[in-house]
Amino acid sequence: MRLLVLLLALTASVPTWAQQNAPKAADLAATPPMGWNSWNTFACDIDESLIRETADAIVASGMRDAGYTYVNIDDCWHGERDADGFIQPDPERFPSGMRALADYVHSLDLKLGIYSDAGTQTCAGRPGSQGYEYQDALQYARWGIDYLKYDWCNTEGRNAPEAYRTMRNALAASGRDIFFSICEWGDNQPWTWAKDIGHMWRTSGDIINCWDCVVSHGNWNSWGVMRILDMQVERGLRVHAAPGHWNDPDMMEVGNMPAPNEDRAHFAMWAMLHAPLIAGNDVRSMTEATREILTNQEVIAVDQDPLGVEGFPHKRAGGVEVWFKPLADGDWAMAILNRNDDPRAVTFDWPEEHVEDAFSQNRPHFDQHTYAIRDLFRHADAGTTASPLAVTVPGRDVWMVRLTRAGG
What we know:
The protein has two domains: 2-303, Alpha-Beta Barrel (TIM Barrel); 312-407, Immunoglobulin-like. The protein is globular. The chain contains eleven helices and 20 strands. It is of the alpha/beta class. The longest helix is centred in the first third of the chain and has 20 residues, at 2-21.
């Protein structure tokens, strides 16, 4: 009886606060989310000082002004449940409590995200949300949480659509608009059922900071950047993404890759995929090269384009790929990705290339129209499509441009 009274009291008290502080639901996923997550660099080595310092660094580095909004705490924040079943943060790692941390993050004009799991325990062995979905959602709302990453460990054969729908309903009943990130690694093909459940869904296993590798952990693998990129194409995922619901090829390893050229190519291709841009590096100590990549407004604009259409490979041969992405107002993004270790010379005769996106039914018609070329990493104009393209792309790097109709 005491628990029922508490649940009713929380349900009654949360909406007033939420109306004043929550974003409108329609705005939550109009474009893919941008932010930061603790897991790639810190795993379980997290506490409230790290989160506060990271939030400060996101502001000081210009990342907030570039669009990075969410500061997301991944696994290992959990303490125990109280006598009534409400989850509490680890008192040693988060002694001030989650509400105080959310208030601090919000004071910087940022949003706070948190992590849980659809099973009995999280992947790191902390308390999961199975059987406690409505209590956990109410607790998150009471704390002022803005984003939930919901994992898939220790689910013991549970039905994935049912599990994620249950938490979706719990979040909806909490009285606060909370972005819902489905993280079941693509095992149950969420792109076929999750559009009305979550705002985005993972399409692969965990990313790792290597160019093109698979790292085995026994019964699961981590995947290099190129391996995850290939999965998006092989699984035909682009037709499932649109404003309101997005494919998620996992958090970025920009700043964690072995070399800046790999960081640059990684960032460019995630933008071409219209992927969530969730940084996974230590933003407190990142290099200027990493900061410039992550805050590149011209590349971010490709990712955040309101048309909401993912890019596609037009050509793939010899480790070189030519990608196109239709943008709003008739613009196009183009990326030439060199997956090889050494440089490659690439030529492209615009009128002879019949580029077409059958999915969105867009065509640039290079044989009829001339486009101005804007180099997005050099922030410089690079001629027009009136002349054939000849460019050398360094190894493990990318040449990325925006094409804007110039006439003809």
